[in-house]
Amino acid sequence: MSEIITPATDPKKIMGRPKCLNDVTFHFCPGCNHGNVHKMIGEAIDEYGIQDRTIGVAGVGCGVFLYNYVDVDVLEAPHGRACAEATGINRVHPDKIIFTYQGDGDLAAIGLAETVHTANRGENITVIFVNNTVYGMTGGQMAPTTLLGQKSTTSPYGREFMGDGYPIKMCEMLATLEGTAFVARVACDTPKNLMTAKKAIKKAFKMQIDQMGFSFVEILSTCPTNWGMTPQQAYKRVAAEMIPYFPLGIFKERTTADYM
Question: Which CATH class is domain 27-255?
Answer without folding.
Answer: alpha beta
